[in-house]
Structure formats: C-alpha cells, structure tokens
Amino acid sequence: MGIIRIENVRKIYIRKSLWNAQKKIALENLNLDITEKGVFGLLGLNGSGKTTTIKLLLGLVFADSGNLFIFDEKIPNLEIRKKIGYLPEASYFFKYLTAKELLFFYAELSFLSGKEKQKRVEYVLEFVGLKEAEKVRLADFSKGMLQRIAMAQALLSNPDLLLLDEPTGGLDPVGIRKMRELILRLRDEGKTVFFSSHFISEVEKVCKYVGILHKGKLKKTLEVSALNGKLEDIFIQTISE
C-alpha cells in the first residue's frame, strides 16, 4: 500500500495589495512516493515549500494542479484525515487549561467514546512524559513542554501517519532530544512519520529517507544510511546547483 504519493503538484500563492497582485510559486512539479513505514524527512531552507507540502496533504490548502494520495486515497478525504496526526510548526492553545483538560477538549473533537477517551488521554500523557504535569496550566509550560503536549494531541486518535512541521523548531537541546526520542518511539511502534526540518543533524539521526526540497522543487530523495554522515555536504551542494 502506498503511504504518501504526490503527483506533479503545483501550488501558487497570490498575494494581493491595493495596487497589484504578486504571484509566488510555492511548489513546482512536485513528485514524491513513500511506500515504506518509518521516518521520512523533508529537508529544506525556510520558504522552500515544506509547510505548503504538509498543508496540501492535510487538505488545508489545495493544489492548483496535480494529485495527492494518502493510503492510496485521493486527498482531500475526511475518512483518511482521521488516520493522520498533525503537529503544526506553531501550536496555539488555551493557556488557562491544564494539560489534561486540553487533551479532553481535543478528544471530544476527535469523537472518541467515553472509555476510549479516558484511555487515550492517559496513554498520550504518559507517552510524551507529561503525566506528572497533567494538572499544570499551559501558561506555566516551557516551550519544550508545549511542543510535547502538541504531540500528545496529535496522537489522541492513534493515527497511522504523523505529519510534523518543524517539530524541533525553537527547542533547546534537552527539548530536541526528547522530541527525537518520541519520533523514534513512534517509528518503533510501526507508525509512519513524515516531518519537515532544516536541521540536518536531526534528519540524520531519525530518518531512513530524506527528500531535499529547494525553491518549491524536490531535488533529490536519498537513503540516509548510505550517505556516511555526508548529508550536510550533499544538501549544500544540491541547493547550490
């Protein structure tokens, strides 16, 4: 079964002002085929089209041409969306809620039944290492803790596919390590993780495959284990061509 398939996708943004309209090509002829479970990293500079790619897969924005498929079903598709967990680059939560209250709120939105809701909330709190902080209000959370509670809400429905947009962005070294451990645990549990990043070292540590995206075009798809620690050199060379 195909996990993610992107075929000849083009996405243009039109930015209108009082006097004119500017066209920006976010993605141009993007093709990508992921058939294996594991961790796939989309590596690129800021503005390369990584977030747009994830939003297209979620059905939050729409392609101007081309097709996208998840689990061999064309996107957008509400039933397939239920199998996806999403961690945005910047999460915005009600800061007056506790960690547990927030997760119960999202569990309601996920239409989980009563017993299942309680079970999943307890499980994801334990999974992300926030069980002892379940009664702490989010206003008192560190950046790393907020990122982990965001991961917890992405896991509530027990999704088969995780789409993570810059999951280590803005984190300190301890927070980065904890997020890396969570991604590796998800991989070991048989989940597929697709995440965007511009941190080459993190991609090398957790990914089986990496795609290099530059100025809206997928330049290369590589198997990380075959690179012998030379991903940085390959990335710099690729975006310089």
Descriptive overview:
It is a single chain. Strand 9 and strand 10 (217-223) form a beta hairpin. The longest helix is centred in the last third of the chain and has 16 residues, at 173-188. This protein has helices at 50-58, 78-81, 99-109, 114-127, 143-155, 173-188, 200-206, 231-240, and strands at residues 4-16, 21-34, 39-43, 65-70, 73-74, 84-87, 161-165, 192-197, 209-214, 217-223. The model has no long low-confidence stretch (mean pLDDT 92). The chain has a single domain, classed as Rossmann fold (3-Layer(aba) Sandwich), CATH 3.40.50. It is an alpha/beta fold and 241 residues long. Helix 3 (99-109) packs across helix 4 and helix 5 (143-155) runs parallel beside helix 6. It has a 6-stranded mixed β-sheet with strand order 6-7-8-3-9-10, with helices on both faces.
Put the structure in a nutshell:
The protein is of the alpha/beta class and 241 residues long.
Topology (SSEs and partners):
Layout: E1 4-16, E2 21-34, E3 39-43, H1 50-58, E4 65-70, E5 73-74, H2 78-81, E6 84-87, H3 99-109, H4 114-127, H5 143-155, E7 161-165, H6 173-188, E8 192-197, H7 200-206, E9 209-214, E10 217-223, H8 231-240
Parallel strand pairs: 3-8, 3-9, 6-7, 7-8
Antiparallel strand pairs: 1-2, 1-4, 4-5, 9-10
Give the N-to-C terminal Cα separation: 34 Å
Order of helices and strands: EEEHEEHEHHHEHEHEEH
What is the tally of helical segments? 8
| CATH class category name | Alpha Beta
Structural class by secondary-structure content: alpha/beta
The description of the largest β-sheet is: 6 strands, mixed
Please give the order of strands in the largest beta sheet. Answer: 6-7-8-3-9-10
DSSP strand count: 10
Uncertain runs are none
What CATH architecture do you see?
3-Layer(aba) Sandwich
Q: In which range does the helix fraction lie?
A: 25-40%
Shape: globular
Radius of gyration: 18 Å
CATH superfamily: P-loop containing nucleotide triphosphate hydrolases
CATH topology: Rossmann fold
What's the structural domain tally? 1
Instruction: Estimate the strand proportion.
Output: 25-35%
Give the rounded overall mean pLDDT.
92
